[in-house]
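thought: user wants a sequence for this fold. calling inverse folding tool.
action: design(structure=
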């Protein structure tokens, strides 16, 4: 009897246990009104909303432009003192280490963009619930996603060299240690593949300003080829943009950087910012509340009356006298790129301008292109500037095409001269300053022209590195080390990555 009771009790517990297990197996979080991944990507609207989120980390990369200038001969860090904006000071002085907050933020932001793009590509054929969601324009939408992933990986490879490469899915923290660094050639190949895929499906024109077009993908692909010295591949893809007659050089170079000049006829790709945010978060200063980098380059303690257009800032990312002296008389780009506040003050006495001289590494010069201006911010003033970053302009396309034709296996210096001289004629307002050199002399002229045309836009350091001029142009630069920046130390610890040479 006792034995039967024990067996009966065991059987009852087993049945209850099995029932409980079945309940656990069949558990549906939606019964408790919980949202899970299975609820994602149920409609066209969901896919389009998620695609917008892939754009968001672009805004977080605003310090990439700042670093691209401060690490070069174009700008110095500036600031209040030697310990102000310390990560930028270290980059300027070439004392940066793997423990650099600015470089770490760029790494994290770019990989957040990669992860968001991967999530969408992972569920292109079917959503997390296994359902296919088809709609008109889906392929073109994925063209934008492919471009964005390419842009994030391009940022990573040009900053850090060999980096972890993954494209099949979003990577969780627990999985990060499973990946090593892929050779930069493999990363570049993935960037190329993504851009080629994007070009095949993207429209030439987007209804909504700021969305990626076919021309933006072609321009970025041309730049990626140039970074690898694939001139024969770069020339035709850049040429296709020019022959499409889709862009023109604007007459007013300076006006192009005002809010009224955003997304104009010269714009190939801009990172969009707005000043509609009512909130602020100093803990995420670079996280897309607005273009944080605008506040950085403003003049400390600036005040003025009347129609004086400028707002105060923090006196960082200051143009050098070296850059200032590189412009020749008559070049309208100088005044549009560099603000000499003393000269401006003398020319506008009615404004009653007062300001605090930049206490550290003062050059007397300030960035004009992205200078903070009155009425262009909201919420927390310093964090909510609306200024778009002009990442690729048509003049950049012309200069890249000129470089590609000059360095191709079958050079076409006549065509190269024509493209660089289009840029110079806009700069000087005449054809008296045309370039007539050929061969390597023309190549050096083109690289110099890139400096003058694109100054304070984030390209200078990378142009000097890829053309082999960095060691002779940049004070403190060590060949064999400083071509790339150090892998952030937390990634070395968490993911077990190897470090770049010299760091």
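)
observation: tool returned 503 residues.
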């Amino acid at each position: 009897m006792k034995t039967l009771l024990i067996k009966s009790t065991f059987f009852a517990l087993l049945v209850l246990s099995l029932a409980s297990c079945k309940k656990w197996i069949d558990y549906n979080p939606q019964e408790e009104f919980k949202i899970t991944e299975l609820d994602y990507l149920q409609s066209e609207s969901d896919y389009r909303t998620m695609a917008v989120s892939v754009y968001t980390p672009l805004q977080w990369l605003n310090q990439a432009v700042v670093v691209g200038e401060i690490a070069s001969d174009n700008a110095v860090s500036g600031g209040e003192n030697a310990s102000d904006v310390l990560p930028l000071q270290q980059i300027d002085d070439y004392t940066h280490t793997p423990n650099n907050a600015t470089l770490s933020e760029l790494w994290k932001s770019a990989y957040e963009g990669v992860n968001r793009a991967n999530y969408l590509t992972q569920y292109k054929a079917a959503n997390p619930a296994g359902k296919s969601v088809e709609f008109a324009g889906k392929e073109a939408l994925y063209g934008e996603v492919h471009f964005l992933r390419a842009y994030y990986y391009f940022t990573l490879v040009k900053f850090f060299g060999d980096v972890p490469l993954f494209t099949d899915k979003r990577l969780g923290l627990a999985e990060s240690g499973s990946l090593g660094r892929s050779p930069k050639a493999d990363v570049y190949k993935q960037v190329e593949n993504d851009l080629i895929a994007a070009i095949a499906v993207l429209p030439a024109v987007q209804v909504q300003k700021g969305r990626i077009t076919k021309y933006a993908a072609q321009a970025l692909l041309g730049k990626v080829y140039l970074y690898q010295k694939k001139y024969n591949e770069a020339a035709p893809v850049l040429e296709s943009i020019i022959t499409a007659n889709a862009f023109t050089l604007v007459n007013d170079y300076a006006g192009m950087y005002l809010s009224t000049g955003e997304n104009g006829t010269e714009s190939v790709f801009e990172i969009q910012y707005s000043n509609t945010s009512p909130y602020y978060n100093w803990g995420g200063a670079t996280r897309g509340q607005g273009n944080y980098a605008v506040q950085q380059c403003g003049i400390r303690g600036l005040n003025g009356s009347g129609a004086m257009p400028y707002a105060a800032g923090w006196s960082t990312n200051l143009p050098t006298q070296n850059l200032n002296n590189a412009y020749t008389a008559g070049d309208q780009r100088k005044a549009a790129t560099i603000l000499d506040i003393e000269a401006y003050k003398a020319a506008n006495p009615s404004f009653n301008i007062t300001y605090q001289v930049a206490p550290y590494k003062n050059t007397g010069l300030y960035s004009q292109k992205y200078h903070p201006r009155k009425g262009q911010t909201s919420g927390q003033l310093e964090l909510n500037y609306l200024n778009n970053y002009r990442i690729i302009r048509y003049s950049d396309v012309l200069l890249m095409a000129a470089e590609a034709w000059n360095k191709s296996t079958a050079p076409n210096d006549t065509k190269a001269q024509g493209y660089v001289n289009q840029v110079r004629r806009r700069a000087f307002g005449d054809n008296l300053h045309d370039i007539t050199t050929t061969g390597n002399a023309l190549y050096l002229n083109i690289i110099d022209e890139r400096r003058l045309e694109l100054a304070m836009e984030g390209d200078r350091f990378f142009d000097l590195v890829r053309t082999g001029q960095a060691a002779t142009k940049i004070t403190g630069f060590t060949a064999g080390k400083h071509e790339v920046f150090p892998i952030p130390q937390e990634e070395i610890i968490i993911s077990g990555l190897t470090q770049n040479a010299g760091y």
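thought: summarizing for user.
answer: Here is the designed sequence. The longest strand covers residues 267-271.
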